[in-house]
Amino acid sequence: FFARKQVVKNTNEVPLYYSYREGIKAYRLDVPDGVYKVTLYFAENDSLQNGQRVFNVNINTRPVIKNLDLVADDGFEEAVRRTFMVTAKDQEGINITFKAIKGKAVLSGLRIERYYVK
Question: Using one digit for the tens of pLDDT, what is the confidence trace for 43-84?
Fold first, then answer.
């Protein structure tokens, strides 16, 4: 984990952005079968230009974010939050994968909320 060097703007949830993981490849959550709300938190803290950090995110093999470029899409030091409804089934849990296209993928935070139990 890296500590954030700058103050993240555009959020009331600043503590979620205090640290981040750079170069993340995957995150697995062993949860019971059911429907979940998955929220991913991002912020670009490095002085990068558009196109220097671009990555995709899949949840349970389904593409949910394609070609995320935090600087181009949202700006430097801006809080970014993306939420998805996900179904965990067959006791496989929730598997989030990050595929770097350019540079390294980053993740500041993750929130899982149980929405529906099968």
Answer: 887 777 788 999 999 999 999 999 999 988 876 677 889 999
Burial pattern 34-46, b for ≥16 Cβ within 10 A else e, equals: eebebebbbbbbb
Three-state secondary-structure class, residue 98? strand
* Integer Cα distance of 93 and 74 in angstroms: 30
Q: Which residues does 4 contact at the CB level (< 8 Å), separation at least 6?
A: 17, 18, 19, 20, 43, 45, 108
Let me know: does 88 contact 33? Beta carbons within 8 Å: yes
Other beta carbons less than 10 A from residue 108's beta carbon: 24
67-94 b/e with 16+ CB inside 10 Å = b?
Answer: ebbbbbebebbbbbbeebebebeeeeeb
| Cα 25 from Cα 114, distance rounded (Å) | 24
